[in-house]
Every structure is written in structure tokens, then in C-alpha cells.
Amino acid sequence: MRRHSLVPLLAAIAVSTALPAAAQDVQNFQPAQGTWNYFGVEGARVAPHGLFVPQLYVNYASQPLVERDADDEVVSKLVEHMVTTNFMVTAGIFDYFEIGVDVPLHYVDGDAVDAGFALGDIRLMPKARLYGLQDGEDGFGVALAVPMSLPTGDNEKFVGADQFTLNPKLVLEAKVALFRLAVNGGVRVRPETKSIDSLELGNEVTYGAAIGLTAVPSTLEFLAEVWGAAPIEDINDDSRSAPLEALLGLRVFTPPGIVLNAGGGLGIIPDYGSPVYRVLFGIGYHDLETDRDGDGILDEDDACPDDPEDKDEFQDVDGCPDPDNDEDGILDVVDECPLNAEDKDGFEDTDGCPDPDNDKDGILDVNDQCPNDAETFNDYQDVDGCPDGIPDTDGDGLLDPDDKCPNDPEDKDG
Q: Which end of the chain, N or C, is more open, meaning fewer C-beta atoms within 10 Å of its C-beta?
């Protein structure tokens, strides 16, 4: 099996002769931003609105660039050791966008470079969530990531492309219970094709796939992924411009919000930048005390994290808006008694206030035989709630209370 290399250089070039600088970045591990993606593969989620996530990754790559002879034997370790530290920050915008910055610092040693430190190409990493998958729920998500690099790297140490590059990629991700799976596919656009003898790097297809398994919810996740690239244009058949690499590792979430990453892997297709092996460690801080809806109630305590509490002194601690506090069907904005339900008895039922004594005669409707007609209070049947005159049953002019014979009329005989 071929190992990580350039194709054999012309026989006339001595093995010990260092190659001239040729503006190539052979660091293929570019960490995905945030603590919700994978190691190098992007997921479809973005940072919640207002969340700011700092990260630091350190990875060591063994022999990411070597020279081989016609028998595929290593004759020169052009870059034998590469240690890269990525200083990263990410911010979420409106739950649909995130933007990140990655500043890489490299230590490089090998036959073609003087040992030492060098700044790499700074990356800007915008991403937009197009569909689904936020807040860790099950389902399917789609995102568009457009990482780009600026020509800030030291090309003499093989950590700078010496040109602006753009790598738009489509991100697909699915999550079911404890499993999640992501696939990335895109194009890395290089305005110019750069070469070191037979190694040619121009526009290329980039791809990756990753799987995550949550072993302990909110605490431990195992990750596995592969990523690689392949040239788009016709290039030298011996250019070795199609690297493929695999990684396996884990991610640990701690209660204070510190997130730890550790992993290792190897080159599968040993082309440029694909090392004999790679080990990595990462640390980030994901503020668990987020408040997406800005209502002052942290998401972990908010029953409705995307809908702000209406703060009307009614159940204001659950984080959910209560448009109809008394649940009488009349919204609080027009309800004159938002905390007391309308009694819906056919009497002034649109003001939202209960009317326990519609006719206001002092007799509650539940005991009032005439709830909408006030009692007359004339000492005659004053407890039934109905208005009534004092009767004269026998029609003799004497009211019944004063008539000893209310059913027999007085004969008026003096």
C-alpha cells in the first residue's frame, strides 16, 4: 500500500535536497466549529442565538508529506512532524446562523522545512441552518456551510495556500434517539493551481461522513468520521491529490459547560496531508445557561424555551406565555378580569369578568330564581330573587299579609 507522499521526484534531484516553497497547506484536519458538530465533519445544527463558544484544538500529524521512490519507499520526510493548535470562537445568530473564526498556529519539522512555528491560513466559517434539527431533537436537518481561508499562512512551511480559498458544502444530518449521522459534500475552490514538482492542488471535491453515539445523555458521546478530497480538473496521474483520513474518538460534557474532545486516526488513502497517524485533543466552553427567547428564564428551566414568558404575574416562572390566564376563551388583552374566568351565563359574557350576581340584588345567581331580574325586597318572598308585588289574592283590597282570609273577599259590611 502506498504511504503519504509526493510522487517520486526526478531522479536527478538528490534526496537530501530541500524542495522550494510552493504555497501548499498540508494540514488536512480543520476542526468543525462548536460543540454540536463532529470533529471535522459539520452537523446541521447551529449555535443558539446569543451563544458564544470558545474552543481550542491541538493535533499531531506524523509524516503528512513524504517523498517516495519508484518502489514506493520513503526517501524523504518532507514534513515529518506537524503540531497544530487551532484557536476558535463561534457565535450563534437568530438560531439560524452561526459564524466562527479559526486561527491556526503550527509547529513543523521535516527534511524540506526548518523546524519552527508558523501561523496558518485563518479561516472564517459561516453556516446557515436551512431545515430542521435544532435543540437536539430527533429528525432530519439541512445546512449550508461556507468556510473560507485567508492567505495568512507561511507557505515555506507548507501551512499556507498563498491564496484565498472557498469551500462551500451541503450538510445533511439525521438524529434518532441516541444516534446521529451526518454527511458533507462540497467543493474547495482555489483560484490558482499550485504545484510542488508532481503534486498539483487545484479545485477539488471535498466530502465527509460522521456518526455519533450518545453513551451517557448530556455527558458522553462517541464519534467516528472519515473525510477526504479529490481533484476536479485533470491533473498529473501521479499527483497524489486525493487524501482520505479516518478518526475515532469521544466527547465529554461536564456540568460547568466545559466540553472535552479526544481522538485518533490514520490515513486511509496516503496522499498529501494524510498522515501515518493523527492524535487530537480539544477543549471548549459551551455556556449551558442559555436563554434563547430572552425572557430571563434559562432554557434548562424554561418549559417554552422558544416562546418568551409574558410576565403578567400569572405562572411567570414556567417560561411559557399565557395569552388567556383564566382560560375562559377571552384573551387577556381584551379581558377585563384576566385572572378570573367569565361565567358564561348569557349575561355580559364578552367582558371576561364573572358575574356571580347578575341583577345585583344581593342574591347570588346560584340561589336566584330570577338571576337577571332584581328582587323587590318588600318583605314578601324576598329570598327567591324574583321581583314581585304584594298580592291581594281575593281582590278585596286587603293585601294578603294583612288579610286574615286571603282567599275570601271581605264583604264590606262595616
A: C
